């Protein structure tokens, strides 16, 4: 028995001697958060982590870098491009928010990036070919290890695009993979702006199918879009990793290959929180990031009496105090009976203390106007029912909702306006932000309402009503929740 143990020990030791290590760092959904918040995050902290890495590495991003803060908004994404260039990113793919400034803003982003944008399912409408600055994949030599990275863009851009089209991701991946395999890479990585579990956007997540269909051919899938953190999750031997959002963390993926044959052996991931006191900051990147700050955004114009959160502290309440408050402001501005606010549009909580324009831009970075319309009760019930599970996509002002969750299905749904049950054929005035109201993302039910029956509220945006509300009510206090209640 002792000889057997000795033999096994020597065998594993020998295997270790012939294993080569390759490192990949991954971010996603940075959304222009260049600087630390509450002592965590930012490009300078990421740069310091990279400075400490002893092995050659790849630095990859899964998209949604072009918008989300004052700096990205003012530059239409180009300040994010400048910082990513400075850090030495080697590839990214296309997220839905790369289209926040519409088609014409994408080309300057692509032209200024000093690294490739990979998207195997992203084509020109006119030619059916890849745009000149887009590649389906790239093969990198990382200290002698051949790493193929295939990109997959998100298929649902925030604005309708006229220049480009998106093909189905899995067939596009299959085609790119067949081309890649002719080069006989040691490792295959898929860089995708979609998540393993997408319960937020009302779209069927396909990402797990990559493992089921291409296990053994694909080794690592690096995802994003849904702002989740996923570490060391495997499907059919394929490692899935997601790194959260707002550059609060970075994932480090360590890949082992056989030193003699180059054959893939294993992959694992580690989430590194970018806590400044622990990882530090690169001084040059910190100084460069500061030079990109948008002037006037840190001026205080109000105060929050306490932290106002997006999620209620009461488990059965599916509405949060910050979203409720924003919905109330929207309803007052529109003068309607009901306001529908998409929870995904609220990106951060409102922290206790002084409030600046940077804070309000971080909370709601989009310049969405407000659109109003008249709908019947039948539509209201349809909208609410379709948006409740697995988690509520909307918050309401003027409308209260109760329901039961029976094995993932909405049961015993009841809606009330002004304390009265909603009637199918009764008419109700309703407002929401224009992106949702014209059918964007989770607002797809609003496509049932003709655009000719919708009217924009003049000179109003969600962020303007948010800032006006802070000025008028400072110090702002959270409202009571309980507008959407799930009963057992």
Task: Give descriptors for this structure.
six-stranded mixed sheet; disordered N terminus; 488 residues; globular; alpha/beta
Describe the structure.
Helix 2 (43-52) runs antiparallel to helix 9 and helix 10 packs across helix 14. Residues 1-16 have low confidence and may be disordered. The chain is built from 14 helices and 26 strands. The radius of gyration is 24 Å and the shape is globular. It has helices spanning 2-17, 43-52, 70-75, 78-87, 103-112, 169-181, 208-214, 276-279, 283-291, 321-334, 357-363, 377-387, 434-437, 462-473, and strands spanning 19-27, 57-61, 91-92, 117-118, 122-124, 134-135, 137-142, 145-152, 164-166, 187-192, 220-223, 229-235, 238-243, 249-258, 264-273, 300-304, 338-342, 353-356, 369-376, 394-397, 399-406, 409-417, 420-421, 427-433, 455-461, 484-487. Strand 1 (19-27), helix 2 (43-52) and strand 2 (57-61) form a beta-alpha-beta unit. The strands form seven sheets. A six-stranded mixed sheet has the order 7-8-10-11-13-12. It is an alpha/beta fold and 488 residues long.
């Amino acid at each position: 028995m002792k000889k057997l143990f000795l033999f096994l020990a020597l065998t594993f030791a020998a295997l270790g001697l012939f294993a080569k290590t390759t490192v990949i760092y991954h971010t996603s959904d940075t959304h222009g958060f260049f600087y630390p918040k509450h002592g965590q995050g930012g490009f300078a902290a990421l740069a310091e982590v990279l400075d400490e890495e002893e092995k050659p590495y790849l630095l990859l991003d899964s998209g949604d870098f072009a918008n989300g803060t004052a700096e990205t908004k003012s530059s239409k994404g180009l300040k994010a491009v400048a910082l990513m260039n400075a850090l030495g990113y080697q590839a990214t793919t296309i997220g839905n928010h790369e289209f926040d400034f519409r088609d014409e803003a994408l080309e300057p982003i692509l032209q200024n990036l000093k690294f490739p944008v990979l998207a195997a399912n992203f084509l020109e409408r006119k030619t059916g070919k890849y745009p000149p600055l887009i590649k389906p994949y790239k093969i990198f030599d990382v200290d002698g290890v051949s790493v193929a990275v295939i990109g997959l863009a998100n298929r649902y851009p925030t604005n309708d695009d006229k220049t480009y089209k998106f093909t189905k991701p899995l067939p596009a991946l299959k085609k790119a993979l067949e081309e890649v395999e002719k080069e006989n890479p040691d490792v295959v990585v898929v860089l995708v702006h979609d998540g393993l579990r997408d319960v937020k956007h009302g779209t069927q997540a396909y990402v797990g199918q990559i493992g089921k269909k291409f296990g053994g051919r694909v080794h690592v899938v690096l995802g994003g879009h849904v702002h989740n953190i996923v570490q060391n999750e495997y499907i059919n031997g394929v490692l899935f990793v997601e790194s959260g959002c707002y550059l609060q963390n970075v994932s480090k993926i360590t890949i082992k290959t056989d030193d003699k044959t180059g054959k893939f052996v294993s992959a694992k991931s580690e989430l590194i929180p970018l806590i400044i006191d622990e990882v530090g900051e690169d001084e040059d990147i910190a100084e460069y990031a500061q030079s990109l700050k948008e002037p006037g955004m840190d001026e205080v114009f109000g105060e929050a009496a306490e932290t106002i959160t997006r999620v209620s502290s009461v488990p059965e309440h599916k509405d949060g105090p910050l979203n409720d408050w924003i919905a109330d402001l929207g309803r007052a501005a529109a003068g309607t009976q009901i306001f529908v606010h998409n929870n995904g549009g609220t990106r951060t909580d409102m922290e206790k203390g002084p409030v600046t324009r940077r804070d309000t831009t971080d909370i709601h970075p989009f310049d969405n106007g407000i659109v109003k319309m008249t709908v019947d009760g039948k539509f209201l019930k349809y909208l609410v029912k379709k948006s409740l599970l697995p988690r509520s996509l909307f918050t309401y002002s003027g409308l209260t909702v109760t329901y039961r969750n029976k094995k993932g299905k909405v049961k015993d749904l009841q809606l009330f306006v002004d304390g009265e049950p909603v009637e199918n054929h009764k008419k109700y005035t309703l407002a929401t932000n224009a992106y949702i109201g014209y059918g964007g993302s989770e607002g797809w039910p609003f496509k049932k309402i003709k655009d000719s029956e919708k009217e924009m509220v003049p000179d109003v945006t969600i962020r303007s009503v948010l800032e006006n509300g802070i000025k008028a009510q400072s110090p702002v206090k959270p409202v009571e929740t309980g507008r959407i209640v799930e009963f057992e």
